[in-house]
Each structure stands twice: as C-alpha cells, then as structure tokens.
Design brief:
The chain is α+β, with helices and mostly antiparallel strands. The protein has eleven helices and 14 strands. A hairpin with a 4-residue loop joins strand 3 and strand 4. It is rod-shaped and about 220 Å long.
C-alpha cells in the first residue's frame, strides 16, 4: 500500500505529539495526585489535632467546674508570659490552634498555586512543542516534500514518454543540498536519454526508408509472432490498408482466430523456428503468386533472441514477362518462318497454278494427274496459311480487344499442334459450337489454348487422345481440354498454377505455362479448374464470360 512521505511525516509528528502529551499528562497527574495526598494528610492531622483539643477542652471544663464548686480560691487565674504578652494556658492553646490552621490554609493555598503553575508550565510547553512541530513541518515540506514531488512529477512525464521536461535549477544558488545535486544529475540523464531517443528515431526512420525503397515486400517478425517492421511493398502486395506493426503475423492472411493452418499454408516462421536456416516457397495470397524467402536474424546471446525476416517477391510480373517473352519468341519464329517459307511456297504455288492454267486447262477434272495437282495446290495454300496464323498469334497488344470466334481460334491452335500430335501418335479431336463469341485479346486466348494443348501432349509420351470441346451455357463459354495422359497426383494439383512449379516429371519445363494460363484467364474475369486421375488423364475446364451481342441485355 502506497503512503506518501508527507503523510508519513505528519503521522510520525502526530504520534510524537500524542506520546509527548501522554507523558506530560502522566507527569501532571502524578504531581497533582501527590499534592492532593499531602493536603489530605495535613487535613487529616489537623482534624485529629482539633478533635484532641476539643476532648482536652471538655475534660478541662469538667475539672474546672468541679474545682470551682469545691475550692473557689483556686480559681484565681495564672498568667504566663508568651511572646511578651500575658496569657493563660487556654489562650495559649487557642493561639497554637489558630497558628496551625493558618499554616494549613497557607499550605493549601501554596498547593493551589503549585497546581496553577504546573498548568501554566504544561500549557506553555505544549504551545512551544506545537510551534516547533509546525516549524519542522514547514521546513520538511520546503526541503524534502516539495523536491520529492517535483521528482515524482518529472518521473510521471518520463513514464508517459515526455522527455522534454526538466527539473528547475537555480544557478545563482549559494547553498546546495543533495536534492540540487540529484536534480542536476537527473536533468543530465534526461538530456542523454532524449538525445539517444532522437538518434534511435532517426536510425529507425532511415531503416524504414531503406526497406521501403526495396521493390520486394519485407516483413520482420519477433519470436512471439508479432510484426515489428514492414515496408510499403509488403502492404501493396497483400493489399493491407492498416498498419500491422505490433499485430500477429497471421492476421495479414486473414486468420483471426489463430496461426495459419499448416495444411493450407507452409509457414516460414514455423519452419525457421524448427531449425531450418532458410525457407523458400511459393505461396498464393489473394490470387497473387508470391515467392517467399525467410531467414533467422540473431541479435542476442539467448536462444530466443532472434527475428525472422520474410521477403515476398511478386511472381505475377515474372509470369507476365515470361508471357511476353513467349510472344516475342513466337513473333520472331513467325517472322522467320514466314520469311523463309512464304516466298518458296509462293513460288511453288505460282508454278502449280501456271501448270494447271496452261497444261491442264482443257483436261477433265476427273483426270488422275490433274486431281493430284489440285490436291497439292490446296495443301500448299494451307501450308502458306500456317506462318500467317503464327504471325497473327504473335501480334500481341494488351489494348487490342476484339470479338473472338472460339471455334476458329481453337482450330488454328489444333493446326499448329497437329504435326507434334501425329509425331507422338496422339489423336486430336474437337467438338465445338460455332456461335460462341468472346470479347478480349485473341492472342491471349490462343496462348491459353496453346499452353494447355502443349501440356497435354507432354503428358502423353506414349500416345493417347487429346479432345478439345467448346460449349455455351447461359452467359458463359466452357472450354474443356482433356487428355488421356499420366495424370497429376492429388497433392500436386493445388500447386500447378504456381509459377516455376512443374507437376510433369516426364518432360522438363519452366513451370510457367499454367501460371501464364491462370493469369490470362483471371485477366478476363474467367475461372479455370482441373480434374485429374493418375494414369487416367487430366481435364482442364475454362469458364469465360460471353461477349454481349447487340440486343442482349
């Protein structure tokens, strides 16, 4: 229980005064009781003496009466000289009695005066004690209580984070005490503390600006899973609008009732705490693929003196860049193929058309040679269209938004993979509705189908069937790319759309194909799903919104 120093001093002084009053009271009572006892004894002796005199007087009167009756001549009085006066024996006895009474009255009067004097002395002593105590209280308040209260006030300011307050010091003061030295030392301590805090704030600001300049997301977590630092890139990547400093790390992922479930999220903090020196993984947060690195930073001698630093790299930009690289490579290939093939095939086409025009003009169409020449001419025309399709696919522009005929686009892709499918012994089949129209970038849509078709071919190294179907349901188009390949293991399906992850152990790949597909599908507000059985095959289903035609609501 807290009792202020002021109260302690007041309580002590009160107890001292009470003890002093009790001592004075007992001394006075003892003195007064003694005087009363003496007076009572004197009165008792006087009463005894008076009673004795009365008894003697009665006897003497009886004797005198008897003598007067029997011998009258003896009644002549006999005088005595006492103090220069002549008195008889009776007067002398009476005079002695009067003197004794006077002495008793004087003694009683002296006792009363002594008691009054005692009261005066007691009152003056108490008054002097009270004045001395009050003076002591004033001096203690001025010399002790007030300086301590100033220290308490400045300590409260410091505990509240106010380091600018200072204790008052009079420089011209001649006589100094311990409190003056303490004030000076305390002010110097506050000056040093305030300077250190300002330097720490400057270093913290510099460090925050330094990590804010890093394009990747940075987050620092202590051993209690509290976030102590994060940069702007981290907030932007996870779309966090409020500060997460001082909050639990798992709140950034939406887990408010506890830490991240291990089955859904491979926790970097948990991995590092378990003893791993470093952690690397790809996580998808709010449909954004993030490459996460984590490591432990020791800062003290104890086991728990460490921080965990997490770095988040946005892979969607890498996916987009890889998509642009593929488009660029395809453009270069298309240009080269068109340049190398178009002229030669065009020349052969002119030759065949010249032969048909000059030498077989009058020959019947059922002629065997003319029939073969016409078939060769048609195949040549189809061959010339192949580099044109590649060139059209490579003409990428994010702002090039048009109506897309899904059936026509899928046929172009089938023609592009037809040779590879036949080489692998894969039968390609299609089932498409002709009236399915989408709105978007045709190059993006063809890249989606091309990536899925290429993955399907790689999943069937020993041959099989590739089936592409297109159907329309209400306001959406459903495109299914189905193969009879090796399939995907269930634990790998949830990772196949992550960048740099490849579920196909047969063929080597960069792991970006399906990430690009997912990115492009989400770009047009679509959705992609996958079903697979190991050894039976895989089916990718793409759901895309149909284009709004004239007259549609």
């Amino acid at each position: 229980m807290f009792i202020s120093l002021n109260k302690k001093i007041l309580y002590s002084i009160f107890a001292f005064m009470l003890l002093l009053g009790v001592i004075f009271f007992f001394i006075f009572i003892n003195f007064y009781t003694q005087k009363l006892q003496e007076n009572r004894d004197s009165v008792y002796l006087r009463n005894q003496y008076v009673v004795g005199l009365l008894m003697d007087n009665i006897r003497l009167q009886s004797i005198v009466s008897d003598i007067a009756k029997t011998e009258p001549e003896l009644m002549e009085r006999e005088y005595y000289d006492f103090g220069g006066k002549k008195m008889d024996a009776a007067q002398l006895e009476l005079s002695n009695e009067q003197k004794l009474s006077e002495e008793l009255r004087q003694n009683y009067h002296n006792s009363q005066e002594a008691i009054k004097t005692g009261f005066k002395i007691l009152s003056i002593s108490l008054l002097v004690v009270v004045l001395m105590v009050l003076l002591l209280i004033v001096l203690l308040d001025y010399w002790v209580i007030r300086p301590i209260n100033r220290l308490i006030n400045i300590s409260n300011d410091v505990s509240a984070g106010i380091f600018s307050s200072r204790l008052p010091i009079t420089k011209s003061q001649v006589f100094k005490d311990e409190f003056d030295v303490l004030y000076s030392t305390f002010n110097n301590m506050l000056d040093s503390t305030e300077q250190n805090i300002e330097e720490a704030k400057m270093r913290e600001t510099f460090l925050q600006q330094l990590i804010d300049a890093i394009p990747d997301g940075i987050r620092v977590i202590d051993n209690n899973k509290n976030v102590i630092m994060a940069n702007i890139a981290f907030y932007n990547l996870l779309k966090i609008k409020t500060s997460c400093i001082g909050r639990k790390c798992y709140l950034a992922y939406g887990y408010k009732n506890g830490e991240c479930p291990q089955s859904h999220y491979n926790c970097p903090l948990r991995s590092v705490i378990d003893g791993n020196e470093a952690f690397h993984a790809i996580h998808e947060v709010d449909k954004i693929p993030l490459y996460v690195n984590a490591s432990k930073l020791k800062f003290g001698p104890h086991k728990n003196d460490y921080y965990v630093i997490e770095a988040f790299h946005d892979l969607s930009k890498d996916v987009h860049f890889s998509h642009q690289q593929k488009v660029s490579s395809l453009a270069f290939l298309s240009t080269s193929v068109a340049h190398e093939m178009k002229n030669n095939l065009g020349a052969i086409r002119l030759i065949l058309e010249g032969i048909l025009e000059n030498d077989y003009k009058d020959v019947a169409d059922d002629d065997k040679q003319k029939k073969y020449l016409i078939m060769a001419h048609k195949q040549l025309v189809e061959s010339i269209q192949t580099p044109e399709r590649l060139l059209k696919l490579a003409q990428y522009s994010e702002t090039d938004i048009n109506d897309i005929n899904v059936a026509s686009a899928v046929k172009d892709i089938v023609l592009m993979v037809d040779y590879e499918a036949k080489r692998r012994g894969i039968l390609v089949g299609t089932e498409m509705a002709d009236d399915v129209i989408l709105r978007g970038n045709e190059a993006d849509f063809k890249m989606i189908i091309l990536n899925l078709a290429q993955n399907a071919l790689k999943a069937m190294p020993n041959g099989g069937e590739l089936h592409i179907s297109v159907e329309k349901k209400e306001n959406h188009a459903f495109i299914n790319v189905q193969d009879t390949g090796i399939g995907i293991e269930p634990e790998k399906i949830k990772h196949i759309f992550e960048p740099f992850y490849s579920a196909n152990s047969v063929a080597k790949s960069s792991g970006l194909g399906l990430a690009i597909v997912s990115n492009l599908v989400e770009k047009v507000k679509g959705r992609i799903s996958v079903k697979s059985k190991v050894g039976k095959g895989t089916t990718f289903t793409i759901k895309l919104p149909l284009a709004i035609q004239n007259g549609d609501k």
